[in-house]
Recover the amino acids of this structure.
């Protein structure tokens, strides 16, 4: 999964998506990072499939990826996961296509493994049940076990919300006391500021995969520099002999937390995706 994720990041370059690329998709607030966290400090992605405003699966996936990257950028140093809060207001079967749902599940499970702490389906209607039966086979068992059904008229299920959120911060649409809803202008300003943070991070040689690690101590290059490496002249790469200890293989220490970070004092040969090898013992 790690190897496939690296291949995808090299090709898709999710860290390069900016607000201007997805602004039209974001207008209705169908997905947005809330301005509050759960009680554990994890970012909250609000998803409102009933507010779908486009027919382009490609554009929808691009916006989803942008929001995922933004949530990861805003993870505190002691957290690696996020909460998905899915609101079924105005949802109908026509709101989301099966193709988009399948592609969404593929991207989230395949390229963002273990990023989900809990997914809350808030007030799904009765007509969602057959849709859920169709979607469930696309999900891994570990993933759908993290999904919680919560209903506003069911006090027992509401305990999930009480356990996870500060009710003074949680939006009233989810049973909280915060009356502020989605505001696209406010959200746009927040995203533009975060785009600046991403630009600064990439310029410093860091990576969204490990933004808190000091650049000077990081032994590997950033995802953006990996993306640039694929355009290196192949003949030049083949004529250069790798230095000792820099054979392009993915070492165990990288998997354990240093992946994607750039060294400012080690001159390494370009890392090609075909050079990456992951031992089963890792």
């Amino acid at each position: 999964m790690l190897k496939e994720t690296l291949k995808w990041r090299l090709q898709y370059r999710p860290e390069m998506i900016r607000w201007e690329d997805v602004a039209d998709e974001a207008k209705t607030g169908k997905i947005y990072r809330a301005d509050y966290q759960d009680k554990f400090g994890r970012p909250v992605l609000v998803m409102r499939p009933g507010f779908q405003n486009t027919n382009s699966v490609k554009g929808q996936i691009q916006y989803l990826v942008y929001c995922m990257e933004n949530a990861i950028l805003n993870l505190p140093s002691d957290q690696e996961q996020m909460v998905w809060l899915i609101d079924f207001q105005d949802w109908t079967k026509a709101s989301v296509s099966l193709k988009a749902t399948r592609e969404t599940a593929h991207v989230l499970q395949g390229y963002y493994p273990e990023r989900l702490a809990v997914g809350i389906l808030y007030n799904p209607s009765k007509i969602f049940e057959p849709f859920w039966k169709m979607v469930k086979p696309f999900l891994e068992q570990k993933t759908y076990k993290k999904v919680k059904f919560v209903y506003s008229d069911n006090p027992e299920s509401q305990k999930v919300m009480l356990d996870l959120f500060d009710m003074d911060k949680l939006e009233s649409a989810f049973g909280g006391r915060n009356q502020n809803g989605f505001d696209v202008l406010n959200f746009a300003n927040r995203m533009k500021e975060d785009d600046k943070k991403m630009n600064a991070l990439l310029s410093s040689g860091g990576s969204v995969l490990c933004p808190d690690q000091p650049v000077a101590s990081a032994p590997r290059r950033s995802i953006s520099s990996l993306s640039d490496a694929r355009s290196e002249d192949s003949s030049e790469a083949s004529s250069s002999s790798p230095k000792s200890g820099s054979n392009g293989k993915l070492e165990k220490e990288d998997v354990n937390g240093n992946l994607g970070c750039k060294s400012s004092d080690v001159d390494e040969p370009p890392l090609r995706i075909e050079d990456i090898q992951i031992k089963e013992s890792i």
Remarks:
- The two ends are 12 Å apart (CA to CA).
- Confidence is low (pLDDT under 50) at residues 213-266, 278-282.
